[in-house]
Amino acid sequence: MLKKNDFINILEWSCCLYVAGMMILFGIGKYDQFNHSVSDKFKGMKMMWEFYSYSKPFVITLGLFEVLGAVLLIIPKTRIIGCLFLTSLLTNVILQDYFYEVPAIFGAITLQLIIFFILWLNRVAVIDGFKAFTHISKRINPDYKIKQIIYICLFTVLIFIFMFYLIVLLVNIFIL
Questions:
Q1: What percent of the chain lies above the pLDDT cut of 90?
Q2: pTM for this model (two decimals)
Q3: Which helix (H) or strand (E) holds 114?
């Protein structure tokens, strides 16, 4: 008879391997996915298909990200990162499938629900990680809190200005 921990471990691995396998198949399939025509009765899907078929490198990049997310999901130490990474990809897929009326939406929703289940199985580590990322540093001196907030705001504005001019420069060099 299986112990509860053994059953949960088997269930988690099965879910991870299923999602990873599907994402690897989808990722590899991206190379050829948008080479087919779509029936005119799916107008939104046809429009989305045309958009994606325009740039093969873009579609291949999406496929590589799907495979990368699957690999991160399979490795136990990167499983949570893989879940979050795949959640960002699947959220995009689900929204596009919904707004462009693509019938495959239920497959993406199913994969996302399984990922939520995997995160729930690892909820202690997820909560601990969230606490670690949101932990306020003790290096901030309460006497200088306003001053530090002003410096942080100024530095953030400087970064935005720098990035704006860098993007303008790159656009002028490579596009115009």
A1: 51
A2: 0.74
A3: helix 105-121
